[in-house]
Amino acid sequence: MVHKWWRVVLVYLAGVLAGSLCSSVTDPDVNLAGGSGGVYAILTAHIATILMNWREMSFPCIQLFIYLTVIVGDLAMSVYQRCWLRRSNGVGYVAHLAGALAGVLVGIWVLKNFRPTKKETYLWWVAVFTFSVLMGAMVVLNFVYDTWLRK
Asked: What residue stretch is flagged as signal peptide (predicted)?
């Protein structure tokens, strides 16, 4: 395994945390069960690996195209069902989206980068900052809107 087990666990847990926090702020009426945010984080972390190790990978364009096709197709279908068809089947689609975003961001700074370049180091810092700000904002919003969420 190229990435150690603990790196994958960190990506998974970041996806679960991001999915839970974001869902509680944006979609408080949905109950969450399972770890779908973490699963989406692991799926999209592959995109981060491809981007950070572009020159070291064989056929990175094909790999990226396949991952993006599957992930974007699945996310688009989820958003379509929730927003346009108005199917409120209790599924926390926001948790899926937040987990997917967390997977890319955390994957950039947790998963193995074989030969870091200056651009990738800059991207690493942007990912750390973005994830930290977004998670901090979700924690603050959970406290600020606590009374609003309970209604």
From this structure: 1-18
